[in-house]
Design brief:
Order of helices and strands: HHEEEHHHEHHHHH
Number of domains: 2
CATH superfamily of the largest domain: VSR Endonuclease
Number of helices: 10
Radius of gyration: 26 Å
CATH architecture of the largest domain: 3-Layer(aba) Sandwich
Strand content: 5-15%
Strand order of the largest sheet: 1-2-3-4
Length: about 180
């Protein structure tokens, strides 16, 4: 028997969010700190991943244990209230997750699912898995990376003028650092 009245239960259930949950925010902030950029709740992909790293084709789902059926075979035996409804709902969620994973994999995406408690307790390990895959995909990519080439270039190649003494008096004024524009990437 449910210890809450139907009104209390309704109020509790209506406050459960489907996006921007605490575990998603925690995971996204950690990815951002690592320099990994992403799209959130990317609707162009099956299943609308919580986090999509489009450059590496990685889809990440931050799953709640109850809603996505962690240890479902043992957990469903413990359901007491509205049992048939919840079993049907959670099994439908599990099947939908499997179907979306298959669609994403056929599209060439790598799919990660992380449980909420794993994110809270072992965030660094979860981020490490994703980071490893990003690096692996980046190393196998033939895509030209402008910034890595730019950063590795010799400093004298990037300079507009190495020696201001080669120029006349008028040109020196133009080389004054206060007259040069700063380019930020």
């Amino acid at each position: 028997m449910d210890p809450l009245t139907p009104e209390q239960r309704h109020k509790c259930m209506s406050h459960i969010k489907s996006k921007d949950t605490s575990i998603e925010n925690l995971f996204r902030k950690a990815l951002w700190r690592e320099g990994i950029r992403y799209r959130k709740n990317y609707g162009k992909l099956p299943g609308k991943p919580d986090i999509a790293i489009t450059k590496s084709k990685i889809a990440i789902f931050c799953d709640g244990e109850f809603w996505h059926g962690k240890d479902w075979n043992s957990r469903k035996d413990r359901l007491q209230t509205n049992r048939d409804y919840w079993i049907r709902k959670i099994e439908r969620n599990i099947n939908r997750d499997d179907e979306n994973d298959l669609k994403l994999e056929r599209m060439g995406w790598t799919v990660f699912h992380f449980w909420g408690q794993d994110i809270k307790k072992h965030l660094e390990a979860c981020i490490g898995e994703v980071k490893e895959k990003v690096i692996e995909i980046g190393n196998n990519s033939d895509e030209y990376n402008y910034y890595s080439e730019y950063e590795q270039a010799e400093p004298d190649i990037l300079a507009a003028a190495d020696n201001a003494a080669e120029y006349g008096p008028d040109e020196k004024a133009e080389l004054d650092p206060r007259n040069l524009k700063k380019f930020n990437r």
